[in-house]
Design brief:
- By secondary structure, this protein is α+β, with helices and mostly antiparallel strands.
- The chain has one domain: 3-Layer(aba) Sandwich (Glutaredoxin), CATH 3.40.30.
- Helix content is 29%, strand content 19%.
- Helix 1 packs across helix 2 and helix 1 packs across helix 3.
- The chain is globular and about 35 Å long.
């Protein structure tokens, strides 16, 4: 998906708390992202989110991108109860065979940008190392 390319004009210094939160959670969480190139909300939210991940140094192996079609069908849609796109789920890694735990979720209708919204949820959930 083209909107997974980080926004080159996103200013990490203006969003230092967000970058710090993502950076502090490295190794603790993974990200599942649902979206589509045909989705206007995905184009407005996801490039900044990917810029924040990039600024924090989150490795690509911690991010799984799932493309959905116009019917919102796609990989893991039902398992994660995805109804709106973009949807981003942050999961804390399970230990020794335990299941991963959802600690934050952004859905299209939130009023704050995805990266800032998820960082605040992660801070509130005490996910940071």
């Amino acid at each position: 998906m083209e909107m997974t390319e980080p926004n080159p004009t996103w200013d990490a210094a203006e969003h230092s708390e967000t970058v710090d939160a993502f950076e502090a959670a490295i190794g603790e969480v993974s990200y599942h992202v649902w979206g589509a190139d045909w989705c206007g909300d995905c184009h407005s939210e996801l490039p900044d989110f990917f810029a924040a991940l990039n600024a924090a140094g989150v490795s690509e192996d911690r991010v799984q991108v799932h493309e959905v079609d116009e019917n919102k069908d796609g990989e893991l849609v039902e398992e994660y109860d995805v109804e709106l796109i973009p949807t981003i789920v942050v999961e804390r890694q399970g230990e020794d065979g335990e299941e991963s735990e959802e600690v934050a979720r952004f859905e299209e209708e939130e009023e704050r940008p995805a990266a800032d919204y998820l960082a605040r949820q992660m801070i509130d959930a005490n996910v940071l190392a």
